[in-house]
């Protein structure tokens, strides 16, 4: 197509066009060249349109799938808040009302589509301190594979630590709790995994293609209404109807 356009342009003679305009006579070759140039240009335009339409259609389908996925997530979050989940930052949390061993606690979290809590920051640790209400709670940290090597339930290594003074200190204590002492931050301790304690589940939200989507990327969304700050009073007052109203 590009070669045809180049040939048509090469055949076009502007001086011949001017002469035809002055004399009032148009040669057959001049009309033929003009027609050929017009046809080639239209052909190029058609090729460009045929190329662009599938790309636009793919983009439209991707946006539609993304919209449907976000609406589905909002519906799931609305249901979760009715079941007692609390929202903070980019996760939702559930604290149990009964006591189980560490492995039984993790099994319960998995049945809820979540896992035991992973604490990544000081702010999150303070939030959990308020959430657990003074109870000692299992978190998703163990050292079962090798003594002194602690890993989270997702396989990641422990980097941010909030051990209580003198902790960890047990040779047969391979599971970790939060709330061992009254300090709101440094209160972790290693415990025997068979102890019966409450537990905290965590579920990451707004996952897309294996990547966490930041709430700030939703230009139509008010982040303060979706996930409150570290103020637990705000989090506890969160209601699923605020999600439903925003979806309408």
What does this entry look like structurally?
It is a single chain. This protein is α+β, with helices and mostly antiparallel strands. The protein has two domains: 2-62; 86-247, Mannose-Binding Protein A, subunit A (Mannose-Binding Protein A, Chain A, Roll). It has helices at residues 2-11, 14-23, 28-82, 102-111, 122-131, 223-226, 232-236, 240-247, and strands at 86-88, 91-95, 115-116, 137-142, 151-152, 175-178, 188-191, 198-204, 207-208, 211-212. A hairpin with a 2-residue loop joins strand 9 and strand 10. Helix 1 packs antiparallel against helix 3 and helix 3 runs antiparallel to helix 8 (240-247). The chain is elongated.
Task: Please describe the structure with a list of short key phrases separated by commas or semicolons.
10 strands; eight-stranded mixed sheet; alpha+beta; Mannose-Binding Protein A, Chain A; 248 residues; 2 domains; two-stranded antiparallel sheet; 45% helix
